[in-house]
Design a protein that fits this description.
Strand order of the largest sheet: 3-2-1-4-5-6-13
Pfam family, one: Epimerase
Protein name: UDP-glucuronate 4-epimerase
Radius of gyration: 25 Å
Main location: Golgi
Mean pLDDT: 85
Number of strands: 15
CATH class of one domain: Alpha Beta
Bound molecules: nicotinamide-adenine-dinucleotide, 2-acetamido-2-deoxy-beta-D-glucopyranose
Enzyme class: isomerase
GO cellular component, one term: Golgi cisterna membrane
């Protein structure tokens, strides 16, 4: 359902190259060869006792010079890091943003706060008087100017977003040192299904390595916060029993993205089991709405229809239409806040748990799947324009043909009840889109689709 534009692909390739430099695909290889070579030299040079003596002197000198240079090396790597944090002014901003404006308000670290769902949740928390600190690395998976615009919107409601990566353990430990967070709402991730074909390591970096770094910091924090995080409906993978229930199989993922989310559910389980972290995993079903993600179909269809460009619609293998259980952002936000409010406490301290802590998983969907032609016709009506449709068979790229949530559990435990249907939700999205991209949205796009 999500079809990326050619221009987006080209720039994504350049991104992939950059990421490849950071995360080589076979990090161990070079070291092994080097150590073989070293081994041969070692045998040659250490033949006599005098050379051993000279080598020892040399090694002592080397170690001494390394130790005296180390402080310089680590401070210079801090300076060259892409993200800047620290200092008195920065700490003051963090503290002010973190303090609740109501008695017994929550203090929440929101990761991915410059993202679609994270920005909406942060605003909703602030509106009811909770304290929030955002964390986001503003990566360029999609246009970072949209993330920056969300940040200025949040900052006008006095919410501060720290510019940093969830893989930065020093930053995390600093944040937990200066703020006694009651909750972590973890929404930072490499989202999207198809981008894994170009850049698989970005999914491992954010959804696995980053998750573990964050959980380590949460585990060691005092007080130990409750952890609420975004899993995905994609964990149902090849499951074809509908509607999808939390008790269904999730061991047959159809994409790397889904596999990393499934891994997250199991990784969080071990932190719950060993360290007493209170865990709530939320399986979101195709979230859409104002300030949404440009890599999702409803968003780039809107852009293309306004620009008079054709859109590609995927048809399922057997001629069936693809369908998604589209869920409006405000409904998801209410579900997230209810998950924060009902999360039991973590029970660990100093890395040990004192008793069992809750481990919960909920579907957050809308329960009425919408197929692509219907989605397009609703957009056409709200945009008052006809789409140029190009229908092709779906390639196998990780997208599943159908999603449909059973939300009985979330209704019972969270009081979750979606209230916005696709027509009302897309109307609000289109209104936002036109006001955000302005009249430029009509007809004068020079790029893609
Ligand atoms: N939107 C949906 O339909 C949907 C469906 C299922 C699950 N989810 C999940 O919900 C969460 C939020 O999704 P979204 O739609 O708001 O996506 P998004 O891409 O708009 O938001 C994610 C944010 O996290 C940030 N981020 C990514 N990696 C990071 C890292 N290593 N360190 C710090 N920040 C990082 C990004 O810059 C981005 O702003 C994600 O975990 C996503 O997988 C979303
Ligand atoms: C939905 O899930 C609940 C359990 O959470 C189950 O009892 C119910 O039968 C499911 N409904 C359908 C229609 O599958």
């Amino acid at each position: 359902m999500e079809k990326a534009a050619p221009v987006a692909f080209a720039s994504a390739k350049m991104r992939a190259l950059k990421e490849d430099e950071l995360f080589p695909s076979t990090p161990g290889k070079f070291k092994i060869e080097r150590s073989h070579q070293f081994h041969r030299q070692y045998q040659r040079c250490f033949a006599s006792s005098t050379t051993i003596f000279l080598w020892v002197i040399f090694l002592i000198a080397l170690t001494a010079s390394f130790l005296s240079f180390q402080p310089f090396l680590s401070s210079s790597s801090r300076l060259s890091s892409a993200h800047s944090w620290g200092g008195l002014q920065w700490e003051r901003q963090v503290r002010v943003s973190a303090s609740p404006r109501r008695p017994s308000g929550l203090t929440v670290l929101v990761t991915g706060a410059a993202g679609f769902i994270g920005s909406h949740c942060s605003l909703a928390l602030r509106k009811r008087g909770d304290g929030i600190v955002g964390l986001d690395n503003f990566n360029s998976y999609y246009d970072p100017s949209l993330k920056k615009a969300r940040r200025s919107h949040l900052s006008s409601h006095s919410i501060f977003i720290v510019d940093g990566d969830i893989n930065d353990a020093r930053l995390l430990s600093k944040l937990f040192d200066i703020v006694p967070f009651s909750h972590v709402l973890h929404l930072a991730a490499q989202a999207g299904v198809r981008y894994a074909i170009e850049n698989p390591s970005s999914y491992i970096h954010s959804n696995i390595a980053g998750l573990v770094t964050l959980l380590e910091a949460v585990k060691s924090a005092d007080p130990q916060p409750a952890f609420i995080w975004a899993s995905s409906s994609s964990v149902y993978g090849l499951n074809d029993i509908v509607p999808f229930s939390e008790s269904h199989r999730t061991d047959r993922p159809a994409s790397l993205y889904a596999a990393t989310k499934k891994a997250g559910e199991e990784i969080t389980h071990t932190y719950n089991h060993i360290h007493g972290l209170s865990i709530t995993g939320l399986r979101f079903f195709t979230v859409y709405g104002p300030w949404g993600r440009p890599d999702m179909a409803y968003f780039f269809f809107t852009k293309a229809i306004l620009a008079g460009k054709p859109i590609t619609i995927y048809r399922g293998r057997d001629g069936l239409n693809l369908a998604r259980d589209f869920t409006y952002i405000d409904d998801i936000v209410r579900g997230c806040l209810a998950a924060l409010d009902t999360a039991g406490k973590s029970t660990g301290s100093g890395g040990k748990k004192r008793g069992a802590a809750p481990y919960r998983i909920f579907n957050l969907g809308n329960t009425s799947p919408v197929n692509v032609p219907t989605l397009v016709s609703i957009l056409e009506r709200h945009l008052k324009l006809k789409a140029k449709k190009h229908v092709i068979e779906m390639p196998s790229n990780g997208d599943v043909p159908f999603t449909h949530a059973n939300i009985t559990l979330a209704m019972a435990e969270l009081g979750y009840k979606p209230t916005t249907n696709i027509d009302a939700g897309l109307k609000k999205f289109v209104k936002w889109y036109i006001s955000y991209y302005g009249h430029a949205a009509r007809g004068i796009f020079k790029t893609n689709l």
